[in-house]
Amino acid sequence: MDLELILITGMSGSGKSVALHALEDAGFYCVDNLPPELLLPFVQLIQKRRATRVAIAMDVRSAAALPQVPERLRALRGLGVGIKSIFLDSNTDTLVRRYSESRRKHPLSQPENDTGLTEQRPALVEAIELERELLADLREHAQVVDTSLIRPSQLQRYVRSLIELPGGQLTLVFESFAFKRGIPTDADYVFDARMLPNPHYEPELKALTGRDEPVVAFFQQHDEVRKLMLHIAQFLDTWLASLSNDNRSYVTVAIGCTGGQHRSVYLVEELTRLFADRWTTLCRHRELDATPGRYPSTSFGWLQA
């Protein structure tokens, strides 16, 4: 059986340890902070041991060697290794809060590291922005997951859903969100549904979601809802083939409304069904997947060793 390799990269504090734990629970042999120089020898060793599922985390602690990673991944694909790259991201405010609450130090705030920094320790925000710059190329070639507003358990589910997808074809990810909590940083395209009729103001629908039949019936009565859905579908129909031909593995389409409960959820559900017969699709609801009645913790579980 061919080797399946999952590469986890991303911002420090964005949940790489959480993702690795999810993969370990799924039966992957996991290695954290593998130096890029050891990637090829490590895979060759794993193949000799006849392992079939391996997950590797790399981060900015190996910054000097990170530019080697894309070339080494291409070499592995040439040897028949199936590779999926996942990049975990969070906005700067969230990362600052997580580090402040945990009292841990950012890896680039150390006096010495392999980036060549020998000056006085940079401030936390400066270290985070430097890390973004150093990891930009890896982010460009990976499926990005924004962990700013999700709990560790949500990330574990997201990672498991990604590894279950068939390889070698474009995956279309539809994600609903609430504008009041910010736009997902992993979105390739963002659509605004706030101009649509809002079931929030209907007493019998307020507590329901866009997945419930009464809310679905409410939206089906409004032509503007169907019109927006068809416009989004037409845009995607026009460009998805070109994106696939450009060797894109994932395209994330985020649809937002005020609270992320009714309008965006309904559209995401409908579009997922509409495209499922032509593309591999995933459906996510950022706000609904969180614990009902409260926003997720900003720091717990993200800064584990």
Q: What this model shows, in words?
A:
The longest helix has 23 residues, at 223-245. The strands form two sheets. Strands 2-3-1-4-5 form a five-stranded parallel beta sheet, sandwiched between helices. A four-stranded parallel beta sheet has the order 7-8-6-9, sandwiched between helices. By secondary structure, the chain is of the alpha/beta class. It is 37% helix and 18% strand. The chain is built from nine helices and nine strands. The protein folds into two domains: 4-151, 3-Layer(aba) Sandwich (Rossmann fold); 171-285, no CATH class. The chain has helices spanning 16-25, 39-48, 69-78, 92-102, 124-140, 152-163, 213-220, 223-245, 263-275, and strands spanning 4-10, 29-32, 53-57, 82-89, 143-146, 171-178, 189-192, 250-257, 280-285.
Return the string of H and E elements: EHEHEHEHHEHEEHHEHE
Give the terminus-to-terminus CA distance.
32 Å
Which structural class best describes the helix and strand composition?
A: alpha/beta
CATH topology of the largest domain: Rossmann fold
Task: Give the DSSP E fraction (strand runs of 2 or more residues).
Answer: 15-25%
How many helices in DSSP terms? 9
Second CATH tier, the architecture of the largest domain: 3-Layer(aba) Sandwich
Number of strands: 9
The chain-level mean pLDDT equals 88
Low-pLDDT ranges: 116-121, 292-300
From the alpha carbons, calculate the radius of gyration and give it in angstroms: 21 Å
Classify the helix fraction into a percent range. Answer: 25-40%
